[in-house]
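Per-residue structure
===
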Amino acid sequence: MIRLLTEPLTQAAFASFGDVLEVSGAADKIINRGLCGRWHDRALLDFGPQGRAGISIFNAEPRAFPYVLDLLERHPDGSQAFVPMSQTEWLVIVAPDDGGVPGAPRAFLAAPGQGINFHRGTWHGVLTPLAAPGLFAVVDRIGDTTNLEEFPLDPPYRIERT
């Protein structure tokens, strides 16, 4: 098994894989008579020419460290955004594409309140909450084509918290 340590989820570190969805810096706009800040257009949603945006609710079983990573997947026809519905940490795993297969994975520890949007075709691990409830709103492509490729990892990775 290959050891992999987590790193903090930041937009700079995650940029080649997607977008970090979070409240950071000053609001782009103040709305609702001054009672609400709006951080505007924070993700590049891409559903291709044959799809549309859909919102689903996922309820994933919590996982623990060390976490064994033995499978990556990607969605070639659309982006996929995960917005946690609770204020807990969760694990985000991604890998660059290396000629149609995943390259070396990276493991990010998302802070409470951080969501992400995977760019279309990004290799990633399965939804990995670290505490219950594992509820997430997911914005992704709805369409008629198969939009999933899976890649088993042999040897697997053992992900540990830094």
The domain at 2-160 is CATH 2.60.120.480 (Jelly Rolls). The chain is about 0% helix and 50% strand.
